[in-house]
Every structure is written in structure tokens, then in C-alpha cells.
Write a structure and sequence with these properties.
- The protein is α/β, with parallel strands linked by helices and about 500 residues long.
- The protein folds into two domains: about 260 residues, 3-Layer(aba) Sandwich (Aldehyde Dehydrogenase, Chain A, domain 1); about 180 residues, Aldehyde Dehydrogenase, Chain A, domain 2.
- Helix content is about 40%, strand content about 20%.
- The strands form six sheets. It has a seven-stranded mixed beta sheet, sandwiched between helices. The chain has a six-stranded mixed beta sheet with strand order 10-9-8-11-12-22, with helices on both faces.
- Helix 2 runs antiparallel to helix 4, helix 2 packs across helix 6 and helix 3 crosses helix 4.
- The chain starts with a strand and ends in a 10-residue tail after the last strand.
- Bound molecules: nicotinamide-adenine-dinucleotide.
- The site of nicotinamide-adenine-dinucleotide (NAD) has 29 residues, from helix 7 and helix 8.
Amino acid sequence: MISAEPLPLSIAGQWRLGAGDAYDSLYPATGEPIARLRAASLDDVDEAITRAHQAFRDSGWAQRLPHERAAVLYRVAQLIREQAEPLAQKQRLDNGKPISETRALVASAAGTFQFFAAALETLQDTLTPARGPYVTMSVHEPMGVVAAITPWNSPIASEAQKLAPALAAGNAVVLKPAEITPLMALELARICEQAGVPPGLVSVLAGKGAVIGDAITRHPLVKRVSFTGGTATGRHIARIAADKMMPVSLELGGKSPTMVLEDADLDHAVNGVLFGIFSSSGESCIAGSRLFVARPIYGEFLSRLSEGANALRVGDPASERTQMGPLISASHRQNVERYVALGVSEGARIRTGGARPRGPEFDRGYFYTPTILEGLDNRARTSQEEIFGPVLVALPFDDERDLIEQANDSVYALAAGVWSRDFKRAWRIGRAVQAGTVWINTYKQFSISTPFGGWRDSGLGREKGREGIFQYMEQKSLYWGTNEQPLPWAT
Ligand code: NAD
């Protein structure tokens, strides 16, 4: 247990208990409570947003020069790095990912603050070509209070990805982490405070999405929502945003195709496909969960893949050797089990996995084995719906045209992978597949300097990249008159 006492939230510039219901955050590897919290109440939401609005108006944060705000963000990056190990351990307890992964998430959060600090102090507004007796400029202004709503699967990384550019842009931020993984958002708020972000500018409101997330989204002082989560929730937020005429960015679900051509380097492709679907226990929006393999190599590839899946080290997230930890919760594991049963009812054969692992070390946690399903059509529900767990659907394909058609036959279009030694084919397929990100001869690699987002039901807008800061700003055009003569009506 991190603390027997309920953890305070960061509300309106104070550290205090939420006025909502008490609940426990559980360690998914054992089901034991690791922290007790009191959720935010609707009054807490209103107070935090009103105070954030005041802090935006009065604290001078928005007026600081870019290099001055950047200096604070560099300090945030440095503080994250100084506390990297305790943060990684806490993140492991909060969401059950293996320690090797949570260390990478913490490093990524620090890198995100550093990147947006550098982007901020080097970002340029533009002078546009004048078409009259005036100088024309396009500049960007902060928006006010913006909200960041995040899911449970990679908390510190996804929260940093919203907090850093939103603060860089000069805004106040209300952060709503997933109810079951609130700890990293609270740590980030504490670190921002230590680094010199003005009081009240960042609040963290833990609690149920349908209550707290909904109230934040509807609040009239919230000028933008940056959301990462499920597609159904994203649609709900987009509807509220339409009524408020409020911009939103939505990073949503996926069912990403990975395509292995007959000329692929099979060692790399086997490893890449295993990593693409089974790292993070498949609880990843970009998981390569639909596998297409060229028919001539299908048999051999699936044998090697199944062998690799069976050899993955599933177990204690605290161990350096663990490759796959538990799923996030008992109810989520039941969802995954329901999908495997659905797959079987649709005609799937379980090639490997399809069960809870056995042994005393797995008794209390929410573990599930790496699972490969074969024999389904791409139109089957199990092939089309996001499972968000360690379940891969494998299908053979016959030719390139058939491959592209099947790969693009999905409501989602978040990511895709191509494995081939023929760079011309890989280029053709990489351009033809509809997805926000395409990996060629690699998978699930990320760079904060490269934009990320989805097409279709996978989302709207882009995060990351230098331009990521502009998502949290309004654009303004300035005309500076240089007239020697008065305007025509004055003559
Ligand atoms: P979710 O949509 O249930 O919850 C996400 C967040 O939204 C949580 O903080 C939740 O409390 C909040 N929320 C829920 N209902 C809300 C409402 N009515 N109004 C406002 N906020 C509300 O998603 P989840 O189960 O936490 O996460 C899994 C989903 O997230 C998967 O679909 C996954 O693909 C997606 N995801 C997408 C990306 C991406 O970048 N595209 C990254 C990670 C996860």
C-alpha cells in the first residue's frame, strides 16, 4: 500500500481530498489495494475550473515570454528524470505494466516536456505575403482553460503528451486521469508545482468519466478538450463539443493491420509481430491485432509465431525479465475472455493461448496468456472490433490488391505495419493503407517529434510534433497598416 490514508487530489491550487466517493486503486498483478482516494465531486470540478480560469487570467503564465515558460518545462523534465525510478515503480503498481515498460514511459514523459520546451522557444509565427499597404502576420494565442482526459493504459506518457504542449501554449489545464490509474497525474501536478508552474494552473480531478469527465467537457470555461480513450466516449465528447462550438482532439481505438509479405525477413517479422500485439498485454491503441500473412509462408510463419508467443515471459511486473504483465482489471479480463469465446463461436481455432495462465503466481492477478486465433474472416466481429488485450487474429492473403482491401476494411485507421525486403512494394503498400501511422520493417516505435493520430473512428486531430503546441492555441491574423494615404472612404 502506497498510503493507508486517502491521497489528496490537486484541486484549485490546494492538495485536498476530493468531496466525492472513496475508492481504492488496485495493483492488477495481485488485486491488492495500493492507494485509497476520494474522487472529485461536481463542486470540486467547478471550483478547479473557475480557479484555473483565474490563474490563466492573473498568474502571468500566458504572458511570460516563450523562453521563460520553456525554462519551467525544462525543470519539469529534469525533476521527472531525478525521480524516474520511484515514478516507474509507482506507475507499475498503478497499472500493472512490467517495470521495463514503465521505465520507458517515465523516460518518454521527461522527453516530452523537454521536446515541448525546445519547441516552444524555437516556434515561429509567420509573416505572410502582403497584398496591400499593410504587413500581415499569423500569430497564435493561448485558449484559457483546456481539459486533458486520459485512459489507463499508459498514464504518465499520455498525460505528459497533453500537459506539456498545453502548458507550453500558455494555458491552464484540468487533467482527468482514468479513475483506476490516478497516481501519475497527481505526480505530474506535484512536479509542475515544484518546477514553478503557478498555483491553480494545473488541477487533477480523479473520478468516474461519465460524471467528472462529462462535467469537465460541458463546463463553459473549458475551451478545448484533448481526449484519449475509447471511440464511444470520443463520440460523446464530440457531441458536447459541437454544442459548445469547442475544438477537440480525439485519440481513439484501433484494430491495426500488420502485413507480412513473402519476402520479409522472417526473424524480424516474427519478433515485430509478437512485440506489436503482446507488449503492454495488447492494451495498446496501436496494437497490431489483425495479422495478414502471404499464403505461401503462412504455415511456417504461424508456427514460428506460436512458438514465440508460448515462450513469452508472462508474470510479475516487478521482475526485470517479465515481458507481459496482467491485464488492467478483472472486468477487463472478462471482456477479453468474452471476445475469445465470440471468436470461437464465429469459427476461430485457438492456435495458442486462449486461457488464464496456471500457477500460484497467477492466482490473484488478472493475467491472460498470449492468444492467436486463426480461421476467421476479416469481416468477423472478432476481426473487426477492438479487444484491447493479448489477442491476435491471423489471416492469410493472396495478392496485394486483396491485402490492401482487407487491411482497409475496418472502421478504424490508427496504425499499420508492413514487413517486406522489397522497398518498392513496401512503399506502395505503406502509401495505400489508410492509417495515421505506418511502420515499415519495424512496429510500435514512437517519436515525440512525429505527429500521431488516427483516421475515421480512430480519431480527429494530431498530437506530438512541433505543431502539437498549436493544437492548444487559437490562430490570429494581424494586419498592420502602412498606409501613406487614408483608406478610400476617407478621401
Ligand atoms: P474510456 O473511453 O472508457 O476512458 C478514457 C477516459 O475518458 C477516462 O479518463 C474516463 O474516465 C473518461 N470518460 C469515460 N466516459 C466519459 C464521458 N462520458 N465523458 C468524459 N470522459 C469520460 O477508455 P479506456 O477504457 O480508459 O481506454 C481504452 C481505450 O482508449 C481503447 O479504446 C484504446 O484504443 C483507447 N486509446 C487510444 C489511444 C490513442 O492514442 N489513439 C491511446 C491509448 C488508448
